């Protein structure tokens, strides 16, 4: 897989993870916690795919600047970090909705 494909893999998988997180939040908001849990699990799977690609890039670079840093690479990292933050916040918000529902 070439660098561009790897970077796009981060963007696509991180974006899908983030979208699933917000879909899970909407499900929790409507009281469907089973669906919210399913969607969060799916989001975690996509996040793992994105993180795996990021790890491959880091390992290939070996801390020596071998991997060219491009704007699209920075964009991919931004997508990944944003999706990770979204998941953390969505998990907390779903917990609040669960407590309210009880």
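Sequence proposed for the structure above (102 residues):
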């Amino acid at each position: 897989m070439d660098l561009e494909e790897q970077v796009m893999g981060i963007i696509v998988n991180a974006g899908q993870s983030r979208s699933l997180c917000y879909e899970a939040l909407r499900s929790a908001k409507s009281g469907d916690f089973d669906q919210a849990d399913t969607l969060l699990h799916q989001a975690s799977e996509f996040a793992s795919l994105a993180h795996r690609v990021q790890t491959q890039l880091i390992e290939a670079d070996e801390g020596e600047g071998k991997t060219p840093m491009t704007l699209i690479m920075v964009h991919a990292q931004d997508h990944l970090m944003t999706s990770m933050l979204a998941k953390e916040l969505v998990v907390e918000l779903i917990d609040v909705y669960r407590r309210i529902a009880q």
